[in-house]
Specification:
The protein has seven helices and seven strands, in the order βαβαβαβαβαββαα. With about 200 residues, it is α/β, with parallel strands linked by helices. It has a single domain, classed as Glycogen Phosphorylase B (Rossmann fold, 3-Layer(aba) Sandwich), CATH 3.40.50.2000.
Length: about 200
């Protein structure tokens, strides 16, 4: 089994993709997985550190606050599409799977022009731009929240929930209390940042 996975820009896209990759490898140790991201994105460090093969394409997000910057991103899109197409043609995947973010769009779009199956996963109740535009082209859309389905035109939608890495599920509660200097039995509220960790 050969699978290309793509998703980047924020941890909200990268970590669910990594969870899926790790689960595929757990169930099928002979699976060959290639992750496609950008050289400047968070995924360029997280994915290789996790031991997965990693390749990059040149793509930037669309800056919706600047018409000039948005135009530059759109003009450079054909290059990123053909970079993704070349990787797909060379790797010959059985499936291409994306979790959103601007890097996933050219990869999944290129995948829809190849014989492989294409899948996307949307982590949010309000789908992102890439996944909204890919939904009608891919073979299957997977969702964390059922309400996202109303905003995505797709031939097949499956409610899967959010993919979670096994190492998170194995965290030792007592060690976590000690590391974070928390007191067991004391009501505690955890406040944390968004996908960028801010």
């Amino acid at each position: 089994m050969r699978i290309i996975i793509s998703g980047g820009g924020t941890g909200g896209h990268i970590y669910p993709a990594l969870a899926v990759a790790q689960e595929i490898c757990r169930r099928n140790p002979s699976a060959d997985i290639l992750y496609i991201g950008t050289a400047a994105g968070m995924e360029s460090k997280i994915i290789p550190d996790a031991g997965l093969a990693f390749k990059t394409i040149e793509v930037t997000g669309i800056d919706r606050n600047s018409m000039i910057k948005a135009s530059k991103s759109l003009i450079s899109f054909p290059r990123s599409f053909f970079q993704a197409w070349d990787i797909i043609k060379s790797f010959k995947p059985d499936a291409v799977f994306g979790t959103g973010g601007y890097v996933s769009f050219p990869v999944l779009l290129a995948g829809t022009f190849s014989p492989c199956k294409t899948y996307i996963h949307e982590q949010n109740a309000l789908p992102g731009l890439a996944n909204r535009n890919l939904a009608r082209r891919v073979d299957c859309v997977m969702l964390t929240f059922a309400e996202a389905a109303a905003q995505m035109e797709s031939r097949r939608v499956v409610l899967t929930g959010l993919p979670v890495r096994q190492d998170i599920l194995k965290v030792n509660r007592e060690q976590a209390w000690q590391k974070m200097r928390l007191k067991p039995g004391v009501f505690t509220v955890l406040v944390f940042g968004a996908a960028g960790g801010q």
